[in-house]
Amino acid sequence: MAHARRIAVVKRHLGTGEETSALFDGSVTIITGAGRGIGREAAMMFAQNGARLVLNDLDRSVCDAVCDEVRSLGAEAVGVHGDLTKPGVIQRLVDTAIKEFSAIDILVNNAGYTWDGVIHKTSEQQWQAMLEIHCTVPFKLIQAAGEHMRAMAKAEIKETGKARPRVVLNISSTTGVHGNSGQANYATAKSGIIGLTKTVAKEWGKFNIRCNAIAFGFIKTRLTGDSKNGESMKVGAKDVKLGIPGHIVGQFTKIVPLGRFGEPEEAAGTILMLASPFCSYVNGHVLEVAGGAFV
Taking a C-beta distance cutoff of 8 angstroms, is the pair 166, 210 a contact? Predict the structure, then answer.
């Protein structure tokens, strides 16, 4: 009960509506890459905490499946499948949120993948693909969603003197902070999203729009699974193999003080935390979630 009262006090203090124990009482939340792994777990957590969800995934079947799971929890959800690097998909995602729910309160830029290669063997296609999905797509989505978020904030400021809290969360990686052999393209892109995060935080703080980044370390997803399992994704006409060699996994866990990879739900929990009223004064921050690695 004390925890529920604390949430209610935070929400009442922020002027976000009636006293309630739900962290996201009807907040409209867009999550990209929501069909699997961290994105899927985040969708479940936001649904359990009162959010209304607009979910995107490249794969229609998994996008539809996670929407069905969210609805089974009693939450509202609509899916917008499609490749965010293709013309029109980002705008369709934003337009759907406005059409279905008339607002955008939280944006989670989670979609992404890896396409590894040592520097001297990295192709132009590999390089551009990482910049596109990890930098350009979030930038364009922030622009498109921000048009509505900023307009609503301005109207609220004019009417009441204060805008309701809104949030942009960008998913980065410890590779973007510290670099990693064989991932020059991914490291560069994930470093770039950090610069974008800090800039949005500075420009949009006056609208009560917070922007933070989360740099995940070794989390159990198909990007960190054994590459022998055959997981891959289609990039244009090319099949990109996902995962890392199994013998390397043990080497990675040795540098994590907790001695293990993180679970997707543990990663999703940090997304929930930074989007919540409990982090209302956290802005422009990069949170490393890596079990103590790199400290």
Answer: yes
Max Cα distance, the chain (Å) = 60
CA angle, 146 as apex, 143 and 148 as ends, to 5°?
125
Task: Compute how many other C-beta atoms are within 10 angstroms of the C-beta atom of residue 182.
Answer: 17
Is the pLDDT assigned to residue 69 strictly greater than 70? yes
The tokens describing 272, both together, are 């929930």
Residue 281 is among the residues annotated as catalytic for this protein: no
Please, what are the domains in the chain? 2-221+262-289 (3.40.50.720)
**pLDDT tens by residue, 156-191:** 999 999 999 999 999 999 999 999 999 999 999 999
Of 46, 186, 207, 216, which is the active-site residue?
186
Interstrand relation of 52-55 and 77-79 (parallel, antiparallel or unpaired) = parallel
CB 73 within 8 A of CB 44: yes
State how beta strands 238-241 and 232-235 pair.
antiparallel
Phi, psi of 9 (to 5 degrees): -65, -45
DSSP code for 280? T
84 within 8 A of 56, measured Cβ to Cβ: yes
Q: Which two tokens stand for residue 197?
A: 């995060």
Q: Each residue of 241-275: pLDDT tens digit?
A: 776 666 666 677 888 999 999 999 999 999 999 99
Work out the pLDDT band at 7, boundaries 50, 70, 90.
very low
DSSP code at position 133: I
**Taking 50 as the threshold, does the pLDDT of residue 212 lie above it?**
yes
Residues 6+ apart with CB under 8 A from 104: 28, 30, 94, 97, 98, 145, 148, 149, 166
Cβ partners under 8 Å of residue 147, min gap 6: 94
3-state class of 51 per DSSP?
coil
